Automatic annotation (TrEMBL):
PANTHER family the UniProt entry points to: MOLYBDENUM COFACTOR CYTIDYLYLTRANSFERASE
Stored InterPro entries: MobA-like_NTP_Trfase, Nucleotide-diphossugar_trans
Domain MobA-like NTP transferase as annotated: residue spans: 5-163
Keywords of the record: Magnesium, Nucleotidyltransferase, Transferase
Record Gene3D superfamilies: Spore Coat Polysaccharide Biosynthesis Protein SpsA, Chain A
Pfam families given in the database record: NTP_transf_3 (PF12804)
Top-level taxon of origin: Bacteria
Organism: Pseudoalteromonas denitrificans DSM 6059
Annotated protein name in UniProt: Molybdenum cofactor cytidylyltransferase
UniProt GO MF annotations: nucleotidyltransferase activity
Matching SUPFAM superfamilies: Nucleotide-diphospho-sugar transferases
Length: 200
């Protein structure tokens, strides 16, 4: 089995009042912090979907990934996913979609998703948080065309719900916190400072 990772980081971060992808997290920035989670995981390629502020993000992007541009990022997450799937010549038979601002998700959770996918190769392996299916999630190749059809704000979560009979969920409470505002960013930094989070 083979896995490619797509980190979705194309949004403008309007509520954040700054370029969220470049916000400082420990000794790096938010997007590279997410990329580094996969350093010890057996995957094939890491792709980062960029859109807004790409010219400022690209120079600081880790060399361990391939940036992919989404021209339609401003139309919603669904369009971004569709753009990336169309552009990628995906050779792997599984795709792990994750969000670049779900910073608290531990490396161990990504490994659990991959392990479960090895056992259930034709299933969607999703994250469960607060009784809601969400990213990060692994999609087998049989769903790539459906991902390509997404549009607007219809993200991968819609595809999970439409195919709930074929989804296996793994719980991760950390998935509920994504960083949309400066207040949430402050909470994140306090947790890191006080060592109140799991190893990431």
């Amino acid at each position: 089995m083979s896995f490619d990772v797509v980190i979705l980081a194309a949004g403008k971060s309007t509520r954040f009042n700054g370029i969220k992808q470049l916000a400082e997290i420990e000794d790096t920035n938010m997007i590279n912090f997410c990329i580094n989670k996969f350093s010890q995981i057996d995957i094939d390629d890491i792709y980062v979907a960029l859109g807004a502020n790409s010219e400022k993000i690209l120079p600081s992007l880790s060399l361990n990934c391939t940036p992919i541009m989404s021209e339609n990022w401003h139309l919603g997450l669904g369009h971004t996913i569709s753009d990336i799937i169309k552009k990628l010549s995906i050779k792997s038979n599984h795709l792990l979609l994750c969000l670049g601002d779900q910073v608290l998700i531990p490396q161990a959770h990504y490994q659990k998703l991959i392990n479960e996918s090895h056992t259930n190769r034709q299933k969607i392996i999703a994250t469960l948080s607060q009784n809601k299916m969400m990213a990060p999630a692994i999609f087998p190749k049989s769903y790539f065309r459906e991902l390509e059809k997404l549009f607007g704000d219809k993200g991968a979560g819609c595809l999970m719900r439409e195919n709930a009979h074929n989804v296996i969920c793994i719980e991760c409470n950390h998935a509920k916190l994504d960083i949309d505002t400066q207040e949430e960013y402050f909470i994140l930094k306090q947790k890191l400072k006080n060592n109140q989070m799991e190893q990431v």
